[in-house]
Amino acid sequence: MSNEQQSPWTSGAGFGTPHPAPQQPPASNYTNPVVHPEPSRAQEPSGWSEPQHFGVLEPVTAPPLQFGQQLPYGYGTPPLPEHPNSNLVLTLGIVGMCANFIMFPFISPIAWYLGAKAKRELVNNPGVYRDTGKLTAGYVLGIVGSMFVIAGILLIVGLIAAFTLS
Q1: pLDDT band at 80 (very low <50, low <70, confident <90, very high)
Q2: Is residue 133, in this structure, part of any structural domain at all?
Q3: Is 38 among the domain residues?
Q4: In which domain, by residue range, is 143 found?
Q5: In a domain, 10, yes or no
Q6: CA-CA distance, 105 to 108, in Å (whole number)?
Q7: Bias category Polar residues: which stretches (predicted)?
Q8: Where are the alpha helices (DSSP H) in the chain?
């Protein structure tokens, strides 16, 4: 055991007997240097400053707005809601791209149709819905998936024609 000198069990003494005080290291001739500030310069702060006291903060009240007055920055109407079919179009676009060649080649054209219909509603009724990235992404995925379906159908028709003619 590395701590045998200070263990009460090795010395035979109980817990109540005091241990001798540890010996102080020998005194040395070294003293800490003392820096005296130069009288010509003002003494700089030591890094800690006195707390700053500010006045009481008062809430800023905006003047009442008149009809037709331009609103300050940050005020105004909340953003428009996104189109209700944007999540559906995005979901159909993703599923259509993933399941094109497996068993659902008709999903991508549906996403393309619903996305085009929603975009048409956005153009015909401005200020009702906002155009979101979900709607655009689903619309584009529907177009790309439909092109893959058309290319796949043309490939199958070409292979059938090639094998029947030979």
Answers
A1: confident
A2: yes
A3: no
A4: 106-165
A5: no
A6: 7
A7: 1-10
A8: 8-11, 86-98, 107-124, 133-165
